[in-house]
């Protein structure tokens, strides 16, 4: 549909989409596991068959993005390669192979009066997802929501409009072919930004909204939404190189965390180096970073080792670069590293590289982040890497989900109470 449309018409269409989603969600809530899994596998097949069409649609978006001067990080997120398309299909199959998160008995107890109370997992209902750039979110979100028995309304970014439309059409056709309810997967069919504030006020239809994108988008959603929001504002991820560690492994971990895909939210942004290992660690670290073209921004102590490093400002410790830029600070202990992370971090993914068990235990106990690592790259904070197949997003909230969110995190629960004539005195 066109880029501009009357707001009144847009509001009416979105409400109709909401009503369809609510009806679909009630049917999905009681849909047998095999019916959901069959549809997920059918969706995967549809994507694999349509690779040329998907890439053609994506190429339209890429041409427009380059003409508009989008950053390299944004273009990377937007690009659909053969590998990324294959990963989308495989992600759906992994989700299909997993246990159904709906209908699990979470607890059961018999009260002294004979009442038997069960706590059972149920779908959330209708989930809205607003996202930028990454068209794979269209597939991941639809698949995970379906697995958890939820209907979903998707609103992708204008820069990925053609890619999202192509993918959503494939998913919708596969759902209909499998006999799923109309309204299971819907995509807002406009690029006009006027759709977003309307969607954020549709708490009559949407049980949850999940924003995926830049900090500006996420803060807008949090400020305007009238339904619960699951989000992370940004990924200011840290690694602390402790006083004792395997230096060769440490350099490799830092290189992977920073360079493997710097545009990802779980990429390394700040490195903390214990000054007691500086003489051993910093020379091979600098050689690797310079070979990879990484710009270093350091405190005064680090710049004694690397005079070419840019002086770090206070803003650098809060920065999510999403680029080949790394802030570096020298510290004197694990306690100092933890204090820095808890002050400047975003509670996303942080790690310690160490061979000191007491320091590792202290780090794990005291850093307040969704995912913590010991001797591993932060780049593993991902639904696929965590065995979820795909993910709906990464949450830095504490209610009701935290870290990578799969189908399990898109359920709630209800209590089933069975009696035999009990009345309350």
What does this structure look like?
The relative contact order is 0.14. This protein has helices spanning 7-28, 33-49, 51-67, 72-78, 82-97, 136-147, 161-177, 195-199, 215-224, 247-259, 278-291, 300-303, 314-318, 334-344, 357-366; strands at 105-110, 116-123, 126-131, 151-155, 185-187, 208-212, 237-241, 268-274, 295-298, 310-311, 325-331, 349-353, 371-374, 393-395, 403-405, 411-418. The N and C termini lie far apart (62 Å). Strands 10-9-11-8-7-12-13 form a 7-stranded parallel sheet, sandwiched between helices. Helix 3 (51-67) packs antiparallel against helix 7. The radius of gyration is 24 Å and the shape is globular. 42% of the residues lie in helices and 19% in strands.
């Amino acid at each position: 549909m066109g880029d501009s449309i009357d707001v009144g018409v847009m509001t009416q269409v979105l409400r109709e989409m909401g009503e369809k989603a609510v009806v679909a969600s009630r049917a999905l809530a009681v849909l047998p596991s095999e019916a959901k899994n069959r549809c997920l596998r059918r969706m995967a097949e549809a994507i694999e068959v349509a690779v040329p069409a998907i890439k053609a649609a994506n190429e339209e978006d890429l041409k427009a993005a380059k003409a508009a001067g989008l950053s390299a990080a944004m273009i990377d997120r937007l690009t659909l390669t053969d590998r990324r398309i294959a990963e989308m299909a495989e992600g759906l199959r992994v989700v299909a192979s997993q246990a159904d998160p709906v209908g699990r008995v979470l607890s059961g107890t018999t009260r002294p009066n004979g009442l038997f109370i069960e706590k059972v997992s149920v779908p959330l209902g209708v989930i809205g997802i607003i996202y930028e750039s990454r068209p794979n979110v269209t597939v991941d979100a639809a698949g995970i929501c379906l697995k958890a028995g939820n209907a979903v309304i998707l609103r992708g970014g204008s820069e990925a409009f053609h890619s999202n439309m192509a993918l959503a059409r494939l998913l919708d056709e596969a759902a209909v072919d499998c006999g799923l309810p109309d309204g299971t997967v819907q995509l807002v069919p406009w690029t006009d930004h006027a759709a977003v504030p309307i969607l954020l006020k549709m708490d009559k239809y949407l049980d949850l909204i999940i924003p995926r994108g830049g900090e500006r988008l996420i803060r807008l959603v949090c400020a305007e939404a009238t339904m619960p929001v699951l989000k992370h504002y940004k990924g200011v991820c840290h690694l602390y190189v402790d006083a004792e560690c395997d230096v060769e492994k440490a350099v490799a971990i830092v290189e992977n965390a920073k360079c493997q895909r710097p545009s990802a939210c779980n990429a390394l942004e700040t490195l903390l180096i214990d000054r007691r290992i500086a003489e051993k660690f910093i020379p091979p670290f600098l050689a690797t970073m310079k070979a990879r073209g990484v710009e270093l921004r350091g405190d005064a102590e680090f710049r004694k080792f690397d005079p070419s490093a840019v002086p770090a400002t206070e803003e650098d410790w809060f920065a999510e670069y999403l680029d080949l830029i790394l802030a570096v600070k020298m510290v004197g202990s694990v306690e100092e590293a933890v204090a820095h992370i808890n002050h400047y971090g975003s509670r996303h993914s942080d790690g310690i590289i160490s061979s000191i068990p007491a320091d590792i235990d202290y780090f794990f106990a005291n850093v307040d982040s969704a995912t913590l690592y010991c001797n591993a790259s932060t780049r593993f904070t991902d639904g696929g890497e965590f065995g979820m197949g795909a993910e709906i997003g990464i949450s830095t909230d504490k209610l009701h989900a935290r870290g990578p969110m799969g189908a399990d995190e898109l359920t709630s629960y209800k209590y089933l109470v069975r009696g035999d004539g009990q009345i309350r005195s």
